[in-house]
Amino acid sequence: EWGWGSFMTCYFDTAKISVQNHAIGGRSSRTFITEGRWDKILETLKKGDYVIMQFGHNDASPLDDTARARGTIKGIGDDSTEICNPIRKIKEVVYTYGWYMRKYVKETKAKGATPIICSLVPRNNWKEGKVSRSADSYALWAKQIAEQEGAFFIDLNELVAAEYEQMGVEKVKTFFPVDYTHTNKDGAILNAGIVAKVIAQIKPGKLYKYLLTR
């Protein structure tokens, strides 16, 4: 199982910029924060940096199940609810997916860095020859937060789905040897290439200048 963040170094001149991949499987927009992973990034984040972020796959999970307790409230509003987290053994206020995404964007900007939101990559789910999108849920909410907060946006959900449809069911199946969610190395490299291609198109600050091809 590989995520596309592991292969972004293939597309940038790492002699001129540092590319760090802090992504980790199984986390949601909520648990990436509650585990302290976001704080560690903020400790070194500085003016001129770029933060490419993608959440959504795990946010639809339950809020307080005994397995992971990683879900968030659906939508982008200011809704919240207090739970007793069965894993952390504490009371926790859980917010919407959009609330957490706003936090990432605002705190990135506060450091003088540039936020780039990616919508979640699609799973290997097909219906009548088409890849199932999240255009009415997490991909939409990611776009809305980017628009509201002035972040750059890459609609990876749509772009990867369209690429999969060009390739066909059998070819795409080779990218998912374990399940319908996690890509192998080839699938991750494909997705990373799409991210790099869009960065070349939208030109967020100076970042695109460090692409190996543009």
Give a quick precis of the structure.
This protein is an alpha/beta fold. It has helices at residues 31-34, 37-44, 97-110, 138-149, 156-167, 169-173, 185-202; strands at residues 50-53, 80-85, 90-95, 114-118, 126-127, 130-131, 152-154. It has a three-stranded parallel β-sheet, sandwiched between helices. A two-stranded antiparallel ribbon has the order 2-3. Strands 5-6 form a two-stranded antiparallel ribbon.
Would you spell out the secondary-structure blueprint of this structure?
Blueprint: H1 31-34, H2 37-44, E1 50-53, E2 80-85, E3 90-95, H3 97-110, E4 114-118, E5 126-127, E6 130-131, H4 138-149, E7 152-154, H5 156-167, H6 169-173, H7 185-202
Parallel strand pairs: 1-4, 4-7
Antiparallel strand pairs: 2-3, 5-6
Helix pairs in contact: 3-4
Primary descriptors:
globular; two-stranded antiparallel sheet; alpha/beta; 7 strands; 214 residues
